[in-house]
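lol forgot to send this yesterday, sorry. struct tokens for the thing we talked abt
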């Protein structure tokens, strides 16, 4: 691994949706300046007492992943199919997302997830705008490639 390498163009992401696409699909057709980002994860709940004593405790927290896909991304068809499945059955689909980052020799496996929200139509401007998909997961495993 090259210590200076932060290349993202060789990264990959693969998603499975248990109820709709158990074999999974590769994510592709990212927006121009963003592909995948994550929210900070709260690890500690803390309280500061009136007597100046700090109390802290570890907590489990959700792991949020945001996908940014162009309007013509082939991946959106899979995600929209999952949304249609959920709307028809009135229950969530279970997702797994594996993100591979070769430049830093890491694989991130998100498990027990769901689609939280997205626009169901791209914004129509000078050109069609990318869509953002918010996914939430219960578990994250990080491993070496």
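and heres what i got for the seq, position by position
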């Amino acid at each position: 691994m090259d210590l200076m390498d932060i290349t993202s163009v060789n990264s990959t992401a693969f998603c499975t949706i248990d109820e709709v696409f158990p074999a999974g699909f590769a994510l592709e057709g990212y927006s121009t300046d963003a592909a995948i980002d994550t929210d900070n994860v709260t690890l500690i709940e803390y309280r500061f007492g009136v007597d100046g004593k700090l109390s802290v405790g570890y907590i489990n927290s959700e792991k949020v992943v945001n996908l940014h896909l162009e309007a013509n991304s082939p991946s959106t068809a899979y995600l929209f199919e999952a949304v249609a499945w959920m709307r028809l059955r009135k229950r969530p689909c279970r997702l797994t997302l594996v993100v591979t980052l070769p430049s830093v020799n890491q694989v991130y496996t998100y498990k027990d997830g769901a689609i939280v929200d997205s626009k169901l139509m791209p914004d129509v401007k000078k050109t069609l705008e990318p869509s953002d998909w918010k996914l939430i997961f219960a578990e994250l495993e990080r491993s070496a490639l």
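The CA atoms of residues 58 and 91 lie 30 Å apart. anyway ping me if u want another try
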